[in-house]
Amino acid sequence: MTDVTRRLFMRAAGVSAMAVSHTTASASRAGSKVDAVARVIASGNGAAATQKAWEVMQEGADPLDAVVAGVAIVEDDPRDTSVGYGGLPNERGIVELDAAVMHGPTHRAGGVASLQNIRHPAQVALKVLQRTDHVLLVGAGALEFARAHGFQEENLLTDHARRIWLRWKETLSDRDDWLPDPADTEPPVAEFFRQHSELVAATGALRFRRPTGTIHCSAINANANLSCTTTTSGMAFKIPGRVGDSPIIGAGLYVDNEVGSCGSTGRGEANLQNMSSFAGVELMRNGASPEDAGMEVLRRIAKTTEPRLRNAQGQPDFNISFYLLAKDGRYAGVTMFGDVDFAITDERGTRLEKCRPLFK
Ligand code: ASP
Fold it and tell me: How much is the pTM?
């Protein structure tokens, strides 16, 4: 029975997804939530995406189509400077996007990296999955492919993102020829820099931390079929051509339909070095709960982080988060540090929950 026919059957029989979902209290481990199977989870910027994905999944959409439709809302949103239109550009002021999709039932995947001028890279990644024999297209080839499929080109650099980039460039060094506007102390640009700066105790100076952000979204339907996507403008002000974890299957996302899915936001290099999302799914395969699997991935990253990226306590000085969804519906969000939310939509509605931090 396909997902659609099963849903129609359930509707005809008056059976809700909740009633037939696999509740797995006996399989639960400490820290993992057990509930109905069907649900959508995402990074904390993805509440609108999980809601949308849930709605279209309820209408019978495949979980992969659902998550791609969900993240399109965030790709469209100019206020989110980490994804799609309005994303922060590379060091030359050009927006380069990375995205990938993975479909549990067929184990097929598609991705695009360093894609310019197309605001919905997750949709292009889906086309790579559906309409090519390949998994990953990059740069000019990815753009040519998007054009061939009718995606419209546009300038993705909003005025807000351009001003943030220019300010970064102008304050990078006092030995070059770019001078910041001394009058530009008003929000929103100055406020953006304040939010992303931290006090260096030794010098009393403010240090700008490059903003990170991305959206990952994973879904499981009432048939326990899983899919996921990750889409991003990547590390702000990166070297042109830099590819992060988001379009790399196994790094920024991974799904095994027999086990579960895992996706990430945060420092992509750490996920490329640790194949973190693949590791998260493999740990679940070997019996770990979503939360335990995510915490173990964080510990591996913390252990392998090179000295230059450690703080005074020897911990990684960057943040990174994981969103895990098991085949039986258990789920978790975990993060290296601090107060980080993740978004979730299921029978109980849409809400934000807290990621469990490895370090306080
Ligand atoms: N993971 C993304 C990347 O490294 C960025 C982020 O999530 O902040 O490209």
Answer: 0.88
